[in-house]
Amino acid sequence: MAxxxxxxxxxxxxxxxxxxIFISTEAIQVQAQAxxxxxxxxxxxxxxxxxxxxxxxxxxxxxxxxxxxxxxPLSRATPLYNNSIFCNCSFPGGDCHVVKIFLKGQxxxxxxxxxxxxxxxxTTLDLNRNYLSGNxxxxxxxxxxxxxxxxxxxxxxxxxxxxxxxTTLRILSIESNMFSGxxxxxxxxxxxxxxxxxxxxxxxxxxxxxxxxxxxxxxxRISSNNFxxxxxxxxxxWKSLQKLxxxxxxxxxxxxxxxxxxxxxxxxRISxxxxEGSEFPQLNELTKLKLLMLRDCNISGPILLGLAAxxxxxxxxxxxxxxxGILSTHLEGLTDLENVYLTSNxxxxxxxxxxKNGDTRAEIDLSRNNxxxxxxxxxxxxxxxxxxxxxxxxxxxxxxxxxxxxxxSGAAAKYVPNRETWEISNTGKFVGANRSASNYIxxxxxxxxxxxxxxxxxxxxxxxxxxxxxxCLGNGNYTVKLHFAEIVIRDNRSFYSLGRRIFDVYIQEKxxxxxxxxxxxxxxxxxVIIKDFKAAVKAGTLEIHFxxxxxxxTSVPKRGIxxxxxxxxxxxxxxxxxxxxxxxxxxxxxxxxxxLPLFVILVIVGTIWWKVHSRAVKEQELLGLDQQTxxxxxxxxxxxxxxxxxxxKIGQGGFGSVYKGTLSDxxxxxxxxxxxxxxxxxxxxxxxxxxxxxxxxxxxxxLYGCCVERNQLLLVYEYMENNSLxxxxxxxxxxxxxxxxxxxxxxxxxxxxxxxxxxxESALRIVHRDIKxxxxxxxxxxxxxxxxFGLAKLDEEENTHISTRVxxxxxxxxxxxxxxxxxxHKADVYSFGVVALEIxxxxxxMKFRPDENFVCLLDxxxxxxxxxxxxxxxxxxxxxxxxxxxxxxxxxxALLCTxxxxxxxxxxxxxxxxxxxxxxxxxxxxxxxxxADGFGxxxxxxxxxxxxxxxxxxxxxxxxxxxxxxxxxxxxxDLNLYVACYQLLMMRKFAILKKLKSLSYIMPNAG
Length: 1007
Fold this sequence. Notes:
Helix content: 10-25%
Radius of gyration: 35 Å
Strand content: 15-25%
Structural class: alpha/beta
Membrane topology: Single-pass type I membrane protein
Main location: membrane
Distance between the termini: 41 Å
Shape: globular
CATH class of the domain at 723-924: Mainly Alpha
CATH topology of the domain at 723-924: Transferase(Phosphotransferase), domain 1
Keywords: ATP-binding, Glycoprotein, Kinase, Leucine-rich repeat, Membrane, Nucleotide-binding, Oxidoreductase, Phosphoprotein, Receptor, Repeat, Serine/threonine-protein kinase, Signal, Transferase, Transmembrane, Transmembrane helix
CATH superfamily of the domain at 723-924: Transferase(Phosphotransferase) domain 1
Largest sheet: 13 strands, mixed
Number of strands: 49
CATH architecture of the domain at 723-924: Orthogonal Bundle
GO cellular component, one term: membrane
Protein name: non-specific serine/threonine protein kinase
């Protein structure tokens, strides 16, 4: 553990080491004070400094003596306090001069003293943790300071540009103040700077380019500010850097690739990056890393194997990203790892055995992923309808309510819970603090003057993520009360009051409080604030999550004071719980009532048995399906949809109507009701239920269950809050917001991954047959999920030619399928290519014609590709806020996928790798032999059919705001139109080929 604790030595620890060296040197000088005294001018200067600071010194004693009023040895018992003047008495002539001043942790309430300029030999000034106000005096620009620490005060205004004149500075720490404005470029003049700490202020603007001059930097911390722009690529200039901290700084992603140049890094902390996302950065060359934190940085894709090149890695935090894939075993080889946080990602597959079998590492948190194992107990002995927890405290009774104890000390990231009804997960380690049980439970030893003070004497703390999992609850709506009282940060004229504890609160994975500050909300410390929330419980589980997002101070009143704090939790049902036991008397009455009319009931049953026999056989057939899904009664579905109220109708699918519903536990669902006039029957229903229930992937719409009661055949899906991709891109009712480029890229890659799963990774080989923008739904976070498996078929290799009707949508169908009925996985690849192109352009393939010379969007894209002007395709609503490289890559992949020849289209897994930049995108060139001559006369045919079928073509698409749960099928006339459109498109491509050499397209190796 000693090695683990060494990871978290921060600026404060570094400064202490330097000071100890200084003290050991100066102690010798202090012993030689008899050789001389301090000049009168410097004594006068110290008196001015005392007046400006509000400091009382004993001037009857020589400041350069060993008098207790002038010298306080550092003590482990009081590490925040220092009251020392150091003199150097080795000058010629026996004179002494003040060289160092330490006035730390004394609650001095004055201003920064301008009189320090009258101490010409002063090199070190430490005024950390006081109550000083104002700004940095202009006079300081003429000093020869090497060490300046004024953190944890009340200093305001802009960082003065004249600080850049103190070119002797090696260490500058101004964190935990209230400085505002941008970083002055003049700080780039401080070429001797080794440690620069600017965290926990209100700084704005971009990081100035002049900072590249600080080539001697070994430590830089700029967290908890309001900077703008991206993390600059010029960070590669700081090649001596050993510690870099950029948490909740306001800067946006992605993490620049130039970070790989910082080969001396031992600690890298980056968190809460918004804006453009990226793949996992290349960190292979950062082999000295002991601590790696890339938390909430909008990183997607797999965890790269480069981590294996960090043999000394002890702390790994990649939580709250979009990492996916199977958790590989290469982490197991990092034997020094003591903390692993992979919370809230998209990892799937089995949990590695080295974790399940009880790894010796201190903390491992894999919660909120898609692993196949679950840590929840299989059953509950009793159902709860209320729960009360005294967070961090002992069992307590308030009136008729008993609060359960929550006294476990230390961080407790548990994979398997040890309680039946509720459990806590507390992950992270306080920066700059040693591991101690007291760090995770706050305690106030003074008397609290508040109602029910026993709930607020102790509280649960967390450095990162604190989650309470409540299980065994009855389903329904609940009221959740969260009790807060700040008992660590004080409310007085002291540096203990300067801390800012800021965190977020989530209930059932929905953020209910953002940047929550207890002192601000309660209007002071030691004051209670109770927040009430409503929560819907389904599957008997309630999750209350507190999360530190990198904001606020981390060093006031001492290192490690930050993160979520919660005093108590109340959970109460909003409905009347059932009476326990039910009553024996009632059971006897019911039993008697059943026995007496039993004979009559048997006669009635026998009479009607033959009437319902055939219907029962049909229902039994459906119920016999191994669906692995929930079964709903028709009564439940009617209640959820308000008896299928027309106002709840949100679409008309290929099978029938689609309704929005709300289950009794508050879960919002989409209900697909098979139409009584539908020609599709039970087998199609069984086909869809069976396939969907067997498929689980982040980019597929989830099936909650079905209803097979009487003549009703219904499917119950998860409800997608943001409708369809078609609706958001170019529907009749445009979305209220514009999909930005990072979102579009994420959507495109997500669709590709969903299709790759269907075609290559799932146990069933599925061809969707109707991939289109309308069948891609978006959840609350705008993550894409493929819907509508009603027409999906198992891809039987011995029967790829479909002799039945063609199912699909005009404009998305692959030519070999639309013209000849030949169906392979490559048909979905073609459809995906069309959708990917629409995502870039923001327009529908079949409804967009820039002028009469173009048939469709794909036609226009081919012409622009031939002209080398692909960026003209990008949606003009994005303006310049997109990555040109990524846009061109996506367009080229789309064109590859729409190759007329199925064999020349990439597989979906290859498309994923190309879209993510993990594989090169081959140049899109097709051989002339793919096409035939003689399409000249078909343009007039297309125009005539198009004019005659404008309304018919429109009707092929479902309403833009409907959940897509059905498919379209093409009639003979529709196919006639499609053939004409396709032939004209081939004519366009043939014309392009006259200017190109005939080349063949070779797909790169899949590896």
